[in-house]
Amino acid sequence: MAISFEIPERVLQEREMLKSVAENIMRPESRYLDEHEHQRPHSFIKAMWYVLRDQQAKALQKLTNGEDKPKREGPGITYVRMIVLAEQLSWGDVGQYLCMPAPLLAGSAIEAVGTKEQKLRFLKRFAEGEPKWGAMAMTEPGAGSDTSAIQTTATFDPETNEWILNGEKIFCTNGKLALEESDGIVVVWATVDRNAGRAGMKPFVVEAGTPGVKIGKVEIKHGIRASDTAAIVLDNARIPAENLLGSPEVIQREGTAGFKGAMATFDASRPMVAASAIGVGRAALEFLKEKLAEHGIQIPYGVPYHQLSAVQRDVLEMEMQLKAAWLLTLRAASMLDHGLHNSLEASMAKVKAGKVVTQVTQKAVELLGTMGYSREWLVEKWMRDGKINDIYEGTGQINLLIVARRILGYTSRELQ
């Protein structure tokens, strides 16, 4: 399959608008919000809410009209647009970007597993009223990368036609934002049968204000400090039966619907994480080149490698790695827009971008010396912010395992 690596003109125009938001709203507040963790980026939220609300309204109208998968010549641009948005806004400030008032991972799970009625019901709230947030809760104190170890339980009560959820989730990005605001939602992954492993995993939409759901510890973090990362405690939380996404049936076989739904969510979200990483890396690289130019150090192109200084070679290597990560990310997103399965490509993009942003931001700090390490410049913040992209949405090691399994044809039991 041939995929063009040209960004559609319509998306390029949107990127210019986002660049203005990043430069004029996000960057000026970046240091303040980093030093005042969990204070909300109100200016950014207000600016993005009206844009995102209108987009969500248009998408829902298409879904209502049965046009969610319209017949057309050629692919769509939904996911390419999303990664361009993630990259540009993360260039502005990744912590603020993560506070974007949108369904985010909750929306990805609903899109991947939910029925048309559920999509309309749960996502409609993001097209009206005041800003609100979506989140997803999967990680637990004893279940990180090994999702089969999830202990949060869901027990069905036939008398009330409700599911009763009990357990604790941790490291939930925007969990506090989603649950503190009216109409916010969190997709909680729980097991309906602990003995079934991944086959028993099911996603439940938990709405803000649900009795028995409370926010636990809110993490103090190394980076992305404008965004909250919270624990969620479920104590006999009663969830309407219709809030279960997909079927409650437990099917004992590899690749069951519940687990496949989780993986489909990650197939859509991992290119977004990769794009976010690239945005942070680009911010650090552009700043580095600007400071080097102030001291008369230019980066020549088309010059033999052996004629370059060590610093020039380092900068060219940083540019090359960022571009390689971007091409992988663009391919992963484009495959979704073509209606193709992209699990391998999504993990490849996530691995590459997570590694590259770590290397690029650290090298930028190194080359800028003492000032790079100081808090006077944002480059040290970008180094702290960038590392999370190698950790959440599946660590770099886990995604490398996924890539190896896909390429070599091994199951998770055969290659661990």
Largest β-sheet summary: 4 strands, antiparallel
CATH superfamily of the largest domain: Butyryl-CoA Dehydrogenase, subunit A, domain 3
Identify the overall geometry: globular
Count of discrete alpha- or pi-helical segments spanning 4 or more residues: 11
What is the fold named in CATH at topology level of the largest domain? Answer: Butyryl-CoA Dehydrogenase, subunit A, domain 3
Cα-to-Cα separation, first versus last residue: 31 Å
Instruction: Assign the CATH architecture of the largest domain.
Output: Up-down Bundle
Give the assembly state of these chains: single chain
H-E string: HHHHHEEEHEEEEHHHHH
The pLDDT mean sits at: 91
Structural class label = alpha+beta
> Level of helix content?
40-55%
Number of strands: 7
Detailed description of the structure:
By secondary structure, the chain is an alpha+beta fold. It has 3 domains: 9-127, Butyryl-Coa Dehydrogenase, subunit A, domain 1, CATH 1.10.540; 134-243, Butyryl-CoA Dehydrogenase, subunit A, domain 2 (Beta Barrel), CATH 2.40.110; 257-408, Butyryl-CoA Dehydrogenase, subunit A, domain 3 (Up-down Bundle). Helices cover 51% and strands 13% of the residues. The protein has 11 helices and 7 strands. The strands form 2 sheets. A 4-stranded antiparallel beta sheet has the order 2-3-7-6. Helix 1 (9-35) packs parallel to helix 3. The mean pLDDT is 91.
List the helices and strands and how they pair.
Layout: H1 9-35, H2 42-64, H3 78-97, H4 104-113, H5 116-123, E1 134-137, E2 153-157, E3 162-173, H6 175-180, E4 185-191, E5 201-207, E6 213-218, E7 229-240, H7 257-294, H8 310-337, H9 343-373, H10 379-386, H11 396-408
Parallel strand pairs: 1-4
Antiparallel strand pairs: 2-3, 3-7, 4-5, 6-7
